[in-house]
Amino acid sequence: MLRKDINQLLTQTGPGTPMGEMFRQYWIPALLAEELPENDSPPVRVKLLSERLIAFRDSEGRYGLVDEFCAHRGASLWFGRNEGSGLRCPYHGWKYDVTGQCVEVPSEADNSSFCENVKLTAYPLVKVGDILWTHMGDPARRPDLPEFEFAHVPPEQTYTSKRWQQCNWLQAFEGGIDSSHVTFLHSGGLKSDPLFKGAKGNEYNLNDTKPFFEVVESEGGLFVGARRNAEEGNYYWRITPWVMPAFTMVPPRGDHPVHGHFWVPIDDENCWTYSFDYHPVRPLTTAERQAMMDGYGIHSKNIPGTYRPVANMDNDYLIDREAQKRGETYSGVAGIAMQDASLQESMGPIVDRSKERLVPADSGIIKARQRLRKAAIALRDEGVTPPGVDTAHHRVRSAAVVLPAAESFLDSCRDAVKATPGVRHASI
What we know:
This is (2Fe-2S)-binding protein. With 428 residues, this protein is of the alpha+beta class.
């Protein structure tokens, strides 16, 4: 179990909180590039780390992320007119550029300098891959742009989606480093999901319900190794990298694409789950890309025009008890993504970790909490830059391999867990 004060430290991410300030040291996903598809497209509401913001793309194609509310009388700029290289409040015509600077107040005299003293809070917004990333911390400590492999392969080799998840970021993230639940919750998907089925590793997953965990600290976070029995004298290892604060990669299966997530707090009771698939050495096939768009693999089928899953809390995730009885799904909920989200959301907005009873299979979660707490306190008390800010920490991969029983997973897989351009991922 976890003390309530530590749970609060880890789950609260608003301005001025230790974890919120830690998240502000990183470039984090703000929205998908598809949400601002062209110059002067409609502005988009963005809530991150409990801050209400507006994203827009101006007439020159520059991206802006600014305070949602006009500095005049607090009207929402979501209603604004995106025109003439700025976002104009429709209430009284005040206009702002992508830096948040007020550039026009129509009621003021032509020679007035009033605008010069009006500026909204604003954060940089930069496209890397399919995502628009922002850094909400001190500009003097702004790191280099993200170098995660999925965001740098050619566009035909990658796909990214996002979904709204109705729970705190931590309980969603903890599911991403929990390899033991796959044998149960996702057992149906290992047999039928087009982005999972057919891999030899699935047999090991399904046949061994008692994985042994070895957790190793990395420069940027952790490597979580889950060991299962394979053929005599060998073990099947699934290696999950975590890069702080909230980037994880799922160990791959066969020649299916590699996949993973980035969990971003909206506020303390909601988060965005960004999910990506990519292949390091080949384009995604038409069938693979369509499956991702249809909500297979780690992706969700969303309500058109939104990023809310079709299967959600309000409709009990379209649970099918007959499919559960037939063994098609273990929980009755269809789809890998919503199987995870349904149970994570069922815990409540912020789970009370003082009541939990952890076991050795939770060792990755325990270690991650310790690293998060230690890093947040070190930043707060001593100004120490947390792990994962350095872009060298981003160049990791997940792996799924069979090794002789006497071999250490990390010693044997040091090259496999490095992102090496042009080299296929290690997977069976």
